[in-house]
TrEMBL record:
Any single Pfam family the record assigns to this protein: BPD_transp_1
Subcellular localization, as worded in the UniProt entry: Cell inner membrane; Cell membrane
Family: Belongs to the binding-protein-dependent transport system permease family. CysTW subfamily.
Primary subcellular site in the record, as a coarse category: membrane
Protein name as it appears in the record: Phosphate transport system permease protein
Membrane topology: Multi-pass membrane protein
Gene Ontology terms describing biological process: phosphate ion transport
CDD domains: TM_PBP2 (cd06261)
InterPro entries: MetI-like, MetI-like_sf, Phosphate_PstC, Phosphate_Transport_Permease
Amino acid sequence: MSTYSISKKDARIRKGSGTSYFYSLTKTLSFVSLILLIAIVISIYLNSKNILSWDFIISTDWNPPAKQFGALTAIAGTLISAVIAIVFAVPLSILCAFFCSELAPRKLAILLRGLIDMLAGIPSIIFGFWGLIVFVPFMRDYICPFVNNVLGSIPLIGSFFQGPPIGIGMLTAGLVLAIMIIPIMTAMIIELLNSVPMQLKEAAFGLGSTRYEVASKVLFPYIKSGVLGSSMLGLGRALGETMAVTFVIGNAHVLPTQILMPATTIASSIANEFAEATSAVHANALMATGFLLFVITIAVILLSRFILAKYSEDH
């Protein structure tokens, strides 16, 4: 009997069964979710199309009383804080995942995995409150002076690492975001490391490889695409984070040319100002920034898919 006839027979058996009803239900819910997403995006666009333009995107003016609005300051703050978070989160997540998966004793690994999962579930407002009460004073007293005095003295690029040492600013927001996304990325990388076939590791150890050589030549090349995907997911989370960033970034509509200066992000601007947007122009400007955030997030997702597809073709 051919595979085609077996498939047709299985389809007839499933027809009218609980499996077919469940399939229809999930398919319907998927279409409903897609329609809702499209409706939300269209609604935001229609409410912001009057102000959404290239001049709005590249303008740094944000003066609600004068009804002057530009999105560049919020876009720059969003991108820079997210990049800072990824720069710190990716290597730390890889190291934590490698320790939990390959080095830690089994009981300690189970304990650490539970703590990581617990940290991943903490609401972002808790991270923001902790950042404001605990982390900002630490940054003000120790990290900001170090960055100003040491990194700020580097020729050509030193000015980027300067700024007011008040503890609130771009660097603090990026570090708080990194602390938020490290547990999520670590949990994903642990699963990736656990998916590496044991035969590969045993063969490498059998050839006399050290743990470092096994990690660098076997484990991480095997999961490289997955690590890239988890990094992109972390970047997407950092781009859209609101409350944690709002507490520690300073919420200043200025173009962030220094890493220690206060700034703002798209999500923070919307959270801070939408309830107080008394004019239609102000509300439309905030909706326009929200639409731009959606476009940026979609662009990051598409870029990650393209990179993963390209990597899969090459390997």
